[in-house]
């Protein structure tokens, strides 16, 4: 997925809903105005008699219990917590998973924990909404001990068991016990009900300083703000929280062995998804919304083989490929056109791949399509050559832009020389590639976005970093500055690169890149999918 700009856009945190349990009144019909928010539950007629409550609490077999085991991410997550602990000695650090988020009325989106929470706990998929990881200051040496606060499994004799559509076992399945999650994560656990007192302990003027990840959970942030109100004014608190968010982002710039392994899994699943798409290209050409066939094919594969897609799939055929983040995906897919597929599988640990290939729907490039494609490929190869330890992150983009500008000059599309266009006051070539060439990749598709500029765009490339290389050229159908033969052609080639001690590894190299190789790869797949 394309980086927003070569300056690496750093999005601000967004607020989410608080996600508390819904408990509509029994007399929902005719409810007074103050109960109007509860009326969405009028469709339900919840049994509520004394006899029912006694009956539903009885007659259940003991739940089968598997022997809990420590998760494979646990030792790595512990090392990450130690690193962030060293950054903020003696302070209380609050990292919420985040709440459930309402999709519409009384239905929620599938839960995904905040990436900082996932990184420091090792929990992935849709585990533990509302949970909060707290690193409590521990002794005079400035260290911390971690406690994971979450909503533990409720008894079958509770109202929650049968009546709570958001958290109840009858509705969403059983939750883990405190013991289960402690073993899985290697972190001490405590009931969520104890969180408020834990946040406020020893906080005040001259006491413990508290930071919270901003935007992760509004309810938790409000509790932290209330606890530290006498010790920190709003401006100081906001600055402290932003510094924590920044540090957590920078913690992910260099991946550990577990993370690299997860990235490899995500890439392998993504490549298999691309193969499935090619097998279904013929079906896409026969459907009135062929782009949806492509999207559904990949997204279904991602759900089968991983957790989900890592971002909304871009399935852009023809001129739609010139819209950088085309996710409407409602267009036709025509023989003779190119289709730009930008997609990634997010595995259960929440690490995602991010891959783009631009494919000829017929299985073979036309002469002009191949010309544009080769220019983009050459730019990508130049970027790979620049992606080495000790170089600056911005050097990767600069290398790609030199090739792009040279080709546009060669084709007579620039109003000046390539050298003049590459100068800061020029940049004419950016008309046809306004996005950046690279962005970091990991738990987020645009990972580490809150890192400082000197650590990201101006940062030094280090072994263990994983980022994309994704130059492109986009000639819109109404662009009168280019010859007609180019109009409506959009090409992007995106690979995921791991920086090694002496260079780099293209993690996505198994997916063909050269035009001849792309055609040879597609041929048997198209035959099978007819």
Give me the number of helical elements.
16
CATH class of the largest domain: Alpha Beta
* Shape descriptor: globular
**Percent of residues in helices:** 25-40%
- What count of domains describes the coordinates? 2
**CATH A-level architecture of the largest domain:** Alpha-Beta Complex
Biggest β-sheet: strands ordered side by side in the sheet: 6-5-4-1-7
The name of the CATH topology of the largest domain is Creatine Amidinohydrolase
Approximate strand percentage:
5-15%
* Cα end-to-end separation: 29 Å
**Uncertain residue segments:** 6-31
Strand count, sense and barrel status of the largest sheet are: 5 strands, mixed
Query: C-alpha Rg, in Å?
Result: 26 Å
Give the CATH superfamily of the largest domain.
Creatinase/methionine aminopeptidase superfamily
- Given helix and strand content, the structural type is alpha+beta
Return the average pLDDT rounded to an integer: 92
Task: Characterise this structure.
- The chain has 530 residues and is an alpha+beta fold.
- It has two domains: 209 residues, Creatine Amidinohydrolase, Chain A, domain 1, CATH 3.40.350.10; 272 residues, Creatine Amidinohydrolase (Alpha-Beta Complex).
- 34% of the residues lie in helices and 14% in strands.
- It is built from 16 helices and 17 strands.
- The strands form six sheets. The chain has a five-stranded mixed beta sheet with strand order 6-5-4-1-7, with helices on both faces. A three-stranded antiparallel beta sheet has the order 9-10-12, covered by helices on one side. The chain has a three-stranded antiparallel beta sheet with strand order 13-16-17.
- The chain is globular.
- The relative contact order is 0.12.
- About 5% of the residues have low confidence.
């Amino acid at each position: 997925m394309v980086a927003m700009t070569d300056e690496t856009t750093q999005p601000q945190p967004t607020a989410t809903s608080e996600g508390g349990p819904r408990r509509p009144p029994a007399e929902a019909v005719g409810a007074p105005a103050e109960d109007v928010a509860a009326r969405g539950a009028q469709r339900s007629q919840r049994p509520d008699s004394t006899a029912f409550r006694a009956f539903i609490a009885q007659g259940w077999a003991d739940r089968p219990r598997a022997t809990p085991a420590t998760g494979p991410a646990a030792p790595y997550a512990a090392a990450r917590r130690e690193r962030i602990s060293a950054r903020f000695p003696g302070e209380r650090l609050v990292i919420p998973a985040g709440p459930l988020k309402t999709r519409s009325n009384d239905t929620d989106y599938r839960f995904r924990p905040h990436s900082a929470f996932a990184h420091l706990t090792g929990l992935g998929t849709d585990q533990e909404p509302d949970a909060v990881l707290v690193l409590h200051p521990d002794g005079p040496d400035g260290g911390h001990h971690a406690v994971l606060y979450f909503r533990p499994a409720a008894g079958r004799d509770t109202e929650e068991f049968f009546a709570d559509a958001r958290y109840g076992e009858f509705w969403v399945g059983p939750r883990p016990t405190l013991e289960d999650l402690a073993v899985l994560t290697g972190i001490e656990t405590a009931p969520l009900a104890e969180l408020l007192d834990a946040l406020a302990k020893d906080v005040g003027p001259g006491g413990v300083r508290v930071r919270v990840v901003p935007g992760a959970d509004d309810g938790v942030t409000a509790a932290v703000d209330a606890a530290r109100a006498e010790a920190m004014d709003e401006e100081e608190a906001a600055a402290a929280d932003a510094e924590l968010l920044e540090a957590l982002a920078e913690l992910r710039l260099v991946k550990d062995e577990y993370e690299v392994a997860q990235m490899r899994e995500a890439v392998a699943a993504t490549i298999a998804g691309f193969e499935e798409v090619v097998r279904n290209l013929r079906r896409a050409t026969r459907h009135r919304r062929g782009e949806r066939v492509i999207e559904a094919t990949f997204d279904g594969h991602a759900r089968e083989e991983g957790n989900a897609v890592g971002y909304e799939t871009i399935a852009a055929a023809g001129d739609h490929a010139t819209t950088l983040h085309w996710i409407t995906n409602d267009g036709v897919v025509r023989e003779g056109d190119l289709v730009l597929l930008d997609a990634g599988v997010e595995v259960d640990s929440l690490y995602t791949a991010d891959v783009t290939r631009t494919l000829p729907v017929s299985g073979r490039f036309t002469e002009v399509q191949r010309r544009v494609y080769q220019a983009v490929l050459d730019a990508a190869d130049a970027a790979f050559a620049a992606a080495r330890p000790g170089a600056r992150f911005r050097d990767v983009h600069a290398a790609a832009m030199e090739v792009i500008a040279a080709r546009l000059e060669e084709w007579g599309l620039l109003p000046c020389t390539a050298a003049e266009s590459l100068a800061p006051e020029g940049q004419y070539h950016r008309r046809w590639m306004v996005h950046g060439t690279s962005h970091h990749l990991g738990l987020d598709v645009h990972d580490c976005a809150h890192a400082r500029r000197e650590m990201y765009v101006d940062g030094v490339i280090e072994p263990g970093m994983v980022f994309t290389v994704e130059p492109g050229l986009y000639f819109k159908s109404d662009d009168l500055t280019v010859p007609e033969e180019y109009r409506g052609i959009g090409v992007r080639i995106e690979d995921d690169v791991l920086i090694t001690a002496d260079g780099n590894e293209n993690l996505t190299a198994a997916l063909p890149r050269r035009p001849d190789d792309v055609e040879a790869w597609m041929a048997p797949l198209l035959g099978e999918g007819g």
